[in-house]
Amino acid sequence: MSDKKYKQSKADIAKQFDLPERQSKITSLLNQAGQAYCICRSSDSSRFMIACDACEEWYHGDCINISEREAKYIKNYFCERCREEDPSLKTRFRPQKRENEADSGRDDRKKKRKEKDHSENKSSKRSSIKDGCGDCSGCLQEHDCGHCEACEDMFKYVGNNKLKLKCRQRLCIKDKKASRQSSSIRVKKKHHERDMYEPEESISHLQTSEPRQCYGPQCTKAAQYGSKYCSTECGMRLATARIYQVLPQRIQEWSLSACVAEQHNRKALEGVRGALARAQAALRALDAQHHDLDALVARAKNATIVHSDEKEADDETSMYCITCGHEIHSRTAVKHMEKCFIKYEAQASFGSRHRTRIDGQSMFCDYYNPVNGTYCKRLRVMCPEHFKDPKVSDTDVCGCPLVRNVFEPTGEFCRAPKKSCLKHYQWEKLRRAEIDMERVRQWLRLDELVEQERNIRLAMASRAGVLGLMLHSTYNHEVMERITKVNENGKLKEGS
User: Which region ranges are annotated with the description Disordered (predicted)?
Assistant: First the structure.
C-alpha cells in the first residue's frame, strides 16, 4: 500500500480532493494567454478538456473523441503519446454496475406502471360499452351536451381526457353504475379546479318526447328537445324584452345616488390631465432651449477669434485617469478622460429591435445593426460608435456663453480658439445631451400618464354598463328609510 501511494502523481492526489481552490487554480492555468493545448495546439479553454495523468497535458474532449459524460467513468487517462512511449500504460475505468442496475430497476417499474394503466383503460372501455338499458332518456340521447365535467374533459372539447367518462346527460337513469360515475366526478375535482358552469336546475323535464310550448314572446311553435325555445332567435327576443323591462328601473336606481368611485375617478382624471399639460409644456420649453442653443452656435461661427494677453499660470500638478488609471497632466486631463471613456463605451452596445417613433427631432442614434437586427439606443450626441464629432478648424471660436455669479448670463461669449479652450471643452455636446436626456424623461412621463388616463376611463366606462346594471342592483338606504317611515306613518293614521 505504501508503494502505491508513493507512486501516485500530484495530479492523482489532487483529484481525490475536489476542492474549489483546485478548480479555480486549474481555470486560471488554462486561461493563461498564449499557452497552447491538445493535438490541435490552440489556446481555447472554453470547451470540455481532460488531462493526461502521465504528462499532465490537457486535451479537448471532441479532439480525442471523449465526451464529458464518458469522462466521469474514467479513473486514469493516458494520452496516445505517453502510451506509445510506455506500452504498459492503459486507460482505466470505474465500475458502472450499480448505476446500470438502478437504471434497469427504474425501467422495469415504468413498464409495470404502463401495463397497469393500459389494463385499467381497457376494462373501463369494456364496462362503458355494456352500460345502459336502451329505453330511458339518457340512453336515447345521441349527442353530448358539451357543458358537464365529463364533456369538458373530452378531447373534442379541448380537454385532457383524464376522467374518461360518458356525458352526464347520456348516462342511463336506471343503472346504478351511472349514479356512481356522476358522484365520482364530483369527488375527483378539487374545489379550486371546478368550472364556472354549474346548472342550477335539472333539465330532465325538458327532455321529453311530448310537444311543449316555446317560451319566446308571441311564438306558437313547439320547443326543441332539451330546450325552452324553438330556436335561438326566440331566446334572444325574450332576453331583449327582459332587458328593456328591467334596465330603465336599474338606470333610475343608479342615478338616484351619487357614486363615490365615480367622483374619485374624475378627480384622478383631472390630476392626470394637469400632469399631461405640464409635461407637454416642459417639452415645448426644451424645444425652445434647443433652438436657442442652435442660435448661439451660429453666432459663434460668424465671430472672430480674440487672443487674450493673460498668460495662464504653469500648473505642474498631475492626477490619475478614473478609466484607465494612468497618470496624466491636469491641463490635458479632461481630453484624456473623454478619449478613454469613448474607447470603453464603444465596446458595449445598447440596442432594441424597435425603432424610435417620436414626432419632431429624434434624440436617439437609431443606427441599424444588420447582424443583430437591432437599433442603437444611445443618445445621438453621445454615441461614440456611430457618430463622430466634426473636425475643429483653427478659425473656429469656442462660443460658450459667459455667466456672472455662476447663473447670471452676461450676454457675451468666449472668443478663444475652440481647439485650445480647455475651460469650455465640449460645452455644446454636453448641453445638447442634457436637453435630450430631459426630453427622454418627459416622454417616459407622458407614456405613464397616458396609460393612467386609459385605465381610469376604462373603469368609468365599465362601471355603469348594461351588464353591470343588469347583474347588480343599487340599494339606497337613506331613500328606503324615508319611504318606510312614510308608509308606517300612513298606516298609523289609518288605524287611528
Answer: 90-132, 183-203
The Cα–Cα gap between 116 and 113 comes to: 5
CA-based torsion, 226, 231, 236, 241: positive or negative: negative
The residue behind cell 455662476 is 406
CB crowding 82-115: b at 16 or more within 10 Å, else e: eeeeeeebeeeeeeeeeeeeeeeeeeeeeeeeee
Tens of pLDDT, residue by residue over 199-218, are 445 566 666 767 888 888 88
pTM, two decimal places? 0.45
Yes or no: say if 457 and 437 are a contact pair by the CB < 8 Å rule. Answer: no
Confidence (pLDDT) at 413: 84
10-residue averages of pLDDT along the chain (496 residues)? 50 55 55 68 80 86 85 86 86 67 59 64 47 72 79 76 79 62 48 45 65 87 85 89 83 75 90 94 91 87 75 68 81 81 78 79 82 86 80 84 81 84 84 90 92 91 76 70 81 73
Buried b vs exposed e over 21-51: b needs ≥16 C-beta within 10 Å? Answer: eeeeeeeeebeeeeeebbeeeeeebeeebbb
pLDDT tens sequence across 162-176: 777 888 778 877 664
Contacts (Cβ under 8 Å, ≥6 apart) of 358: 443
3-state secondary structure labels for all residues of the chain: CHHHHHHCCHHHHHHCCCCHHHHHHHHHHHCCCCCCECCCCECCCCCCEEECCCCCCEEECCCCCCCHHHHCCEEECCCHHHHHHCCCCCCEECCCHHHHHHHHHHHHHHHHHHHHHHHHHHHHHHHHHHCCCCCCHHHHCCCCCCCCHHHHCCHHHCCCCCCCCCCHHHCCCCCHHHHHHHHHHHHHCCHHHCCCCCCCCCCHHHCCCCCCECCCCCCCCECCCCCCCCCHHHHHHHHHHHHHHHHHHHHHHHHHCCCHHHHHHHHHHHHHHHHHHHHHHHHHHHHHHHHHHHHHHHHHHHCCCCCCCCCCCCCCCEEECCCCCCEEECCCHHHHHHHHHHHHHCCCCCEECCCCCCCCCCCECCCEECCCCEEECCECCCCCCCCCCCCCCCCCECCCEEEECCCEEEEEECCCECCCCCCCCCHHHHHHHHHHHHHHHHHHHHHHHHHHHHHHHHHHHHHCCHHHHHHCCCCCHHHHHHHHHHHHHHHHHHHC
Cα separation, 252 vs 479, whole angstroms: 13
